């Protein structure tokens, strides 16, 4: 009998979620004599690895100590996009006067209803990742409990020994907090706790101007919190395209988010129910009084309790060390996902799990370095990117041709009232080979895959130019980039030759 973890708040939706991802009445099976694959960790990488291997005929055991579905389902992608959608609906309703919508800022908003919707949809989605589905539909032996290596080819869980031919470490990572004096005592939220809120904090600070920090700052500002966003670097989204980050910066200022960039946090104090956060900026000491602090910096690999030393698996503070083929120092153990890879995205964990199956079970030689990895920050507008940035190319001595088209030049974006943004592509100089691309648009995450497809399959920008895009759509901005490239090929010499030919045709 396993203990049901507390998923707060205690609501029907969260009880349904818990029943799927950590059933209170779960009884672990008796282990098979030997497994083709034992997977430790039931997040995205572990679920894909287990399901894929079982679907190909392998005898698979899946071990999860906490919640099936991992961060993505329970405290990451799924709940965050649920509240992001609610904040966009509210923002649109309050800012649609030009479309003839009246009411504006007088429209009401119920925070508890928005959060209930998120919890309900998360519970609905959780059935896909449920322990019972993996056992009953996929034929996988699911064990709830702490999995720990006991030798080079065995894993212990709840007193049972699982022998394996191959194993996969897919235990992911968790949120961490910086060492700020007084922060622990004052209390703070992370992505692992913020979605348990039942009341909207009137005053909130978000520490960290990366993707999660920017997403949550905008969401809660639109919900009605007075948000202060603190970032130690001088720019938001420091790794992103500078113009993309600047676009978001300007928008945040217009939406009333208090941006404190290049800020050093000194400490946090409690004063009754208030939290007082003190920081230094431009040599001046400042403070802000808050109801909630959200920490959105840092991730730590989930290494504890795995017994990696007993299996001869090398690791460090960044996680389990793997080869390009995802093989650990134990040749029969592989790893995938946030536990071993720098790009900590759900879609990357999915892709790595597929490589793991091929290499671990079928003597494949697929390489993680061959992956083309797009990513997206789900602010409004979204910022999506794939491939190289301009700085990456410069550091490698690669000459670029960079083309940019503003959404203000795209008819559908104008008609939608969504002209804030652009599409940018980096080409190897003198060619149409795509090395990288950035899109800033309300649905940039939906649009970036055209560039990902082109890069993965070696298609140049000219191939996109030959592809008919429906009009009017915002994705037409990508074709417009190809048209821009084609115009660069029309040099004065080429134009003179074409004009001469056409003149001859006129007789």
Characterize this entry briefly.
With 507 residues, the protein is α/β, with parallel strands linked by helices. It is built from 17 helices and 23 strands.
Outline the structure in words.
The chain is an alpha/beta fold. It folds into 3 domains: 12-175 and 300-370, FAD/NAD(P)-binding domain (3-Layer(bba) Sandwich); 183-297, 3-Layer(bba) Sandwich (FAD/NAD(P)-binding domain); 381-488, FAD/NAD-linked reductase, C-terminal dimerisation domain (Enolase-like, domain 1), CATH 3.30.390. Helix content is 34%, strand content 24%. The chain is built from 17 helices and 23 strands. The chain has helices spanning 12-21, 44-55, 70-75, 77-94, 111-126, 131-137, 183-186, 211-223, 242-254, 346-362, 390-395, 411-416, 444-447, 449-456, 461-465, 476-488, 492-505, and strands spanning 35-40, 60-64, 141-144, 147-151, 154-157, 160-169, 173-175, 203-207, 226-231, 258-261, 264-271, 274-281, 284-290, 292-295, 299-301, 315-316, 319-320, 333-335, 374-377, 382-387, 400-406, 422-428, 434-441. The strands form 6 sheets. Strands 1, 2, 3, 4, 5, 6 and 18 form a 7-stranded mixed β-sheet that branches. The protein has a 5-stranded antiparallel β-sheet with strand order 19-20-23-22-21, sandwiched between helices. A 4-stranded parallel β-sheet has the order 10-9-8-14, covered by helices on one side. Helix 2 (44-55) packs parallel to helix 10 (346-362). The radius of gyration is 26 Å and the shape is globular. It starts with 11 loop residues before the first helix and ends with a helix. The mean pLDDT is 96.
